[in-house]
Structure to design on (155 residues):
């Protein structure tokens, strides 16, 4: 899927306005007033579980990893030097890094258009969940799961 090009200017207008007193603006399809995207039950459940993990580890309330982001260039350059993530990993890593560096954040609705003819997901649940947890553990404060003794893996 892609952010709907017609609504991108709306995101930019609202995001730029918010950037006056924020460092990081995240677009969320779940906060959009106009919904063009209806994921399968499995995909929607998977997404909610991943965000629940994020919220627990980072004590944050983002509604999703986000399909579009806006951030200040100096911070973005610092992040780019540290990041080794690509694609999905990068999406997760930048959100975690924003929270860990205590950026002033905002989340706004963005329209999302489904480009595949069906809502079938390309997600590999086990592989992608492991990647997600691995990326989050890199930034999680004292690795919450390790602290609970659920597992102790160093990345």
């Amino acid at each position: 899927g892609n952010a709907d090009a017609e609504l991108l200017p709306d995101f930019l207008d609202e995001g730029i306005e918010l950037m006056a007193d924020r460092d990081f603006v995240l677009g969320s399809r779940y906060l959009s007033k106009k919904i063009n995207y209806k994921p399968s039950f499995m995909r929607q459940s998977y997404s909610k579980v991943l965000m629940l993990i994020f919220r627990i580890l980072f004590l944050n309330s983002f509604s999703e990893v986000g399909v579009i982001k806006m951030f200040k260039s100096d911070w973005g350059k610092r992040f780019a030097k540290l990041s080794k993530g690509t694609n999905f990993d990068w999406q997760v890593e930048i959100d975690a890094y924003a929270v860990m560096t205590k950026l002033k954040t905002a989340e706004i609705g963005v329209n999302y258009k489904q480009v595949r003819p069906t809502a079938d997901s390309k997600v590999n649940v086990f592989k992608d969940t492991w990647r997600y947890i691995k990326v989050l553990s890199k930034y999680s404060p004292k690795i919450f799961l390790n602290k609970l003794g659920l597992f102790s893996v160093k990345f």
About this structure: Residues 151-155 have pLDDT under 50 and may be disordered. The longest strand covers residues 24-28. The helical segments are 8-18, 41-58, 73-82, 88-100, 125-139, 144-147.
